[in-house]
Amino acid sequence: MVVRNKATIADVARVAGVSTATAGRVLGGYGYTSDEMKDQVQKAARQLGYRPNALARGLITGKTRTLGVVAGDIQNPFYASVLRGISNVAEADGFGLLITNSDESRSKEVQSVELLAQKQVDGLIVTPSDTRKARHLHNLLSMEIPLVLIDRAVAGLSVDRVAADNIAAGEQAVRHLFEAGHRRIGIIAELVEDEGDGLAAFLARAASGDPMEAEALYPSWQRLLGYVRAHRIAGVAVDPRLVFRAGSYSAEAAQVGVPLLLGLSDPPTALFTTDGTMSEGAMRAITALNLSIPRDLSLVCFDDLDWMSFMQPGISTMSQPRLAMGEAAARMLLERIQGENCPPRTVLLPAELISRGSVLRRVLDPAV
Amino acid sequence: MVVRNKATIADVARVAGVSTATAGRVLGGYGYTSDEMKDQVQKAARQLGYRPNALARGLITGKTRTLGVVAGDIQNPFYASVLRGISNVAEADGFGLLITNSDESRSKEVQSVELLAQKQVDGLIVTPSDTRKARHLHNLLSMEIPLVLIDRAVAGLSVDRVAADNIAAGEQAVRHLFEAGHRRIGIIAELVEDEGDGLAAFLARAASGDPMEAEALYPSWQRLLGYVRAHRIAGVAVDPRLVFRAGSYSAEAAQVGVPLLLGLSDPPTALFTTDGTMSEGAMRAITALNLSIPRDLSLVCFDDLDWMSFMQPGISTMSQPRLAMGEAAARMLLERIQGENCPPRTVLLPAELISRGSVLRRVLDPAV
DNA sequence: CAGATATATGAGAACGTTCTCTGTTCATTG
DNA sequence: CAATGAACAGAGAACGTTCTCATATATCTG
Question: What domains can be seen in chain A, in order of their start residue?
């Protein structure tokens, strides 16, 4: 049973005294075989320590039972949870998972996709780092390799997609602050790629109620859009100076924003951070400035990270269903792999407001 | 260049007007080829959108340039970082990464290893969930599949291994508390599998200075061993009632321990939590009990999680180099894959005490 | 009972690469 | 100038499976 050199179907067949075809049928579980043969072959297989070679199987079937995933950064709790969701359904179906990091770089993403394609994955789940230039993704489609996008869309690429309902979530977060009596609300957002004509123009268009092609926007821009909408509903004009653009996906970049916003002549009384990384950066700044939440500053974050529930006070946040997002994406991908042929689907999962202790109820100044 | 059906070497050869052998040599980068042929073949390949099939290549070479990893849970920050470290070096060498979760269950681990082996990974990195029964791992060795262990060892399995120096780290953490004047120090540890004859016997043996086979102990037992050694150095007897055994790798289990320890007639003034999950559980309890750190309770954790640095006050902790652990493991594995044949190596990376504000300096009662 | 169908087995092709072997050319060498 | 060997190209085997096809028997079906 413990054997040094690996046994093949031919070896098993020889020992069992049958043809390789029969042995293959028994071990591969296809075609017809008699119980007698089954026993014989299985006994030989056990004896030789036979282990099927998935490469050979994949080569001939054209299926590897492996999914490829291009995540931004496994280490980031967002991707870690999404991956876990994907892993859960992949594992349940006996699929393997080939995982790479893009670090939000287009060239690394292209490289990853190429690697995964060469390894003949049956399908891919990608969080695209560029919402416009995506020839490598279009290429997959033309090769008929199923593709599911997570968290972001790509303009002109109509494939299955799952994301949080970022606009609604952003709106709800900020509305929550308005309802607590806040009027000057800062936002700390990534906003890395320029959506066409710059932040000012974006804010103007959003404030005017222009519906825009919000679907293909980056999540942070969508959440900003929600921020603007909440202002419109509250009848409060958006002050562009309250919008801090980190410009990169890092806590350090976000950290800079807090003292900047609070240093304004008319500083915000509350902050909305648009993702886990921005939230972490904001918290670092708040600690560094020795501010007390919610006395000195109210805070609503995005994405429920573990520490938010055991900080004192707890941090109110828009919780997005990361695990469910991963699971939904994997399920959609598996359906496509199994031949599902319906038009591309978009699954928008709602984020949920978890209200903890980081928002101060303000009595409104009647003069305003 | 954009082609629907995938092109093979034979297709490229036909278009280029050469033999498949020559086309293969050009595209595979082996053997002799003239520059003329190279141009011709590469042009044809580009034109057809040729993409090498790693399955076919792997089938014949016996190498897949893919590593398999069995982690406990990708979602856990510890594994997420370790994975990122592995990914960094794998990617630099052009290796793919097949990742699975074991959820610390032996049967899932066995299943994962089997899956990865069938997919013909060139080597495996495993965080074994059982330090004793590991036939599946011995099996890998007999098949000559390189294996590297992370975080834990397996008794009787001598392979490359990388881990934190848990005993020294545990000792340093607790010594730090002694030096701050604490005498009754609680420990919240996983201690899931019974190390032979139970906790009481373990404590007795450890306190007597018995060296034990500490190498093959679970990390939490090793950190407990450090805890005991620090007591010996400080000349303080270990009170078994101060050792809380969570019994499972979950924050909920850890959370229970805090009120239990604090409810003792002679409660601890400080706590040592032996990993990130235990720390999270302890923090939840501390928040629920509305305790103030370090006034009501001092705390030293293990593993530096992001929130520990921006809590108010910051949490002192033993920081283990998770990324470096993953990188070291991957490097060792790649060396083995490239034929390195030296005897099994053990890399113990030191953990570093990061002193923040969670430890109160106590003035010692002269009566004690 | 003829004909169809389900069940069972084996021989050998096929998947897309790399490897081995044979053969040719051409420059170098003593 | 014969001998050597490096540089190159092609034919075909090999990797370990599954697939197709041919064949044979047992079991239904009308």
Answer: 9-52 (1.10.260.40), 63-163+323-349 (3.40.50.2300), 166-320 (3.40.50.2300)
